[in-house]
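Shipment paperwork, digital attachment
Item: protein structure file
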Amino acid sequence: MAVGHAGVSSLDADAERASAADTGGHGPAERPVVMGPAPPAPPARAAWSGFAFDACSAPSQWVMNRWRTSSPFTGVGIYLGGVHRACAQKHLSIRWVERQLEAKWRLLPIWVGPQASCTGYDHRISGKPGKNGSFDAARARGMREARRATASARALRIPRREVIFYDLEPFDTGTSACRRSSLAFLEEWTEELHRRGYRSGVYSHVNAGISLLSRTGRHYARPDAVWYAWIDRAGSMPREYIADQGFMRTSRVHQYALDTGVEFGGIRMDIDWNFVSLGATSSAAPPASCDQVASRVAPRTLHPGARGPIVRVAQCLVLPGDRHPTKTSGQYDATTARAVLHYQRRRGLRPTGSVDRRTWISLLARGHTPVLKKGSRGEPVRRLQRTLNAAMGQRRIDVDGTYGPATARAAKVYRRSLGLSARPVVTARVWQALERGRALDPVTGHPQ
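Attachment content:
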């Protein structure tokens, strides 16, 4: 998560004024601490599961539009504010929020306030036990941060009932005062969010805040959702750290990769990867790209009305907008048929509106067309291998991205069908024939 030593932003100041106005002009920290049962959580919004990313700054609208179709993400983490928010948010506005919600993005709001008392951050939760060891100062600060966070959420018109996550970075849970003050702070954060119509979330490392929360008793007001940092496969559960597994089963976000540079739709960003399961129990299959799924497919003729995973592959190859397979419908509808017809006419293929063998060959070959020979590696080799398999009517080559003997033999056969010498080199002539959908008889190796 993006935690730094930034000062209070203008949005934070607006939230502070709005929060003070709620108490008739007195600061939020002056409100008496409310002890007793936690108020009930607001009703959950519709359950959702999928992948989300978070970046230090909210991306521009242009980036969000491109990533909406070309990335596997359906959610985005946004930093509302807090004294330790690290990056400016020049794009984050009411209109930005409205446009993302209209585009069906799911938002994961984050608040980055004071950190645990035993850390070295500039702003820390009070570790003083206070009267009767109830950590009143920590509780009052938790209430204050919740009031500011919800005021910022309302100012951005983030709908009520959304989860707002408090970002609590790693700390030493072996220190009693640090541990107890952090839990007191987070309990008041949860209760105040509930009073204000939002649901409570906590982001932390599995062996810090998340581990502590899983060990709290039934009288403790737990957050409605947790967001845990743990570098492992997507969606995995950190059982060695968690005392109560049920606490996380259907109310979790797993941050499983940090500071990763990735590119979708021609736009590169440094992001964290997250798997989300809020209100739904689901497993996390890795979000394979269009090239990855296309390399696994066994092509067969597709007609309008077809459906299923193989249709998703055809759609991500033929539909405009650089579609990610997770952003396709899997239904061969009228839009898909029009896109296939348009593609066939542009490539000089028979315009049937169905994805026949020649159309598959052409689609699978699309992309960069460098000269390839023995020893070549990488994405162009995988694309060549999958396309030669389709062109020859049988899987003769393992699609592994390495130009080895099997790839060389297939290249020779295909070159001979073009009247070229039987050299194991893939040149522009070979790529052009593949892009035009040239198919061979699987028995004789002659052109069809």
